Every structure is written in C-alpha cells, then in structure tokens.
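Worked example 2:
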Amino acid sequence: MAILMLKDFNLLASTARGNERAMVNEILFLLKNHLGDQEAVAVKTGVRGIIVAKTSLNPYEVVEKFHSLLSERPYEFRFALRIMPIERVVPTDLESIKQVAFELASRIGENETYRITIEKRFTTLHSTDIISAVATEIQRKADMKNPNKILLIEVMGAVTGISLVNPDGIISVMKEKMI
C-alpha cells in the first residue's frame, strides 16, 4: 500500500480509527488558533488512526504548549489520543534509520539512560532488527521503565519519523485528562 502524505512532517498524532479527518481539523485549529502558526499543514497518512502535521514552530515547544493547553482546557482535545514531535524523517531502511538515530542519540548525556520505542505500520522490517541496528551504536545505559530519554522511531510504510524526547515529550491525552 502506498501512503501519500507529507514527507517532511514534524508532528505525528494518533486518533481513533475513523476520526482522521476530525483530527486533521483539530490539530490545525490548535496550531493556528492557539499557537498562531498560520503556515501549519496537516494531512491523513493512509494509516488508520494516524495523521501528520508540519508546523513552522519548534515541534518540541508545540508539544510543551499543548501540555499546558491540555491541563487548562482539556475540552480542546476531542479527537487526539497522542501527539508527538518528529525531529527527522528518513526513508524506511535500516541504514537511514540507524544513521539518524545514532546522530540524535549523541545528545543523550553520559549519565543518562535511554529507551528505544518503535511503532511500525506497513513495513516488513522487524522491531528487533531496528533495535539491534540502533542500540549497538549507542554507548549509554538502557532503562526500559524510567529512561531519561526516549528514542522514538515511528515507521509508516516508506518513511520513518525519528525523535529524541524526554519521557514527558509525548502527549498522551487520555492519561493527562485523568490526572
């Protein structure tokens, strides 16, 4: 299945299947009306429940501002399940993923721990192959439960989004609404 979407997105959001169009409208509303990014673009990906967006703002700061907005005005988030920043988009092949993941992982401090989180859609690559290729290059201690950093690898067919985030760098709307 060919997935038609933005190739240079810097935000990825998940929603319930069937709500993709509503999620596109929601994230555009949040980006344009609450954060003032009139250049924002969002599209469905062809993967059920996933949309991507391109903001002219720093995607890490967008997620931070969304955290604040979610705590102040949770009703603004009707369709979003998770929203995460994407730092780099690469072709879905082990060498490209490995190269960018290692580059981003160089920002993990000497005394910091990390975890690799992989979500795959429409690919024949195995998570274990990706982890093996990436983890062997990272000279830091892994911690699956309480890492200082998360190396996020989002595979969607022919493209893969990669980020290095803090554990609170991903919005999980339902969890945060419960707090």
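Strands lie at 11-15, 41-44, 50-54, 80-85, 88-91, 113-121, 141-142, 149-156, 159-165, 171-172. The chain has a mean pLDDT of 92.
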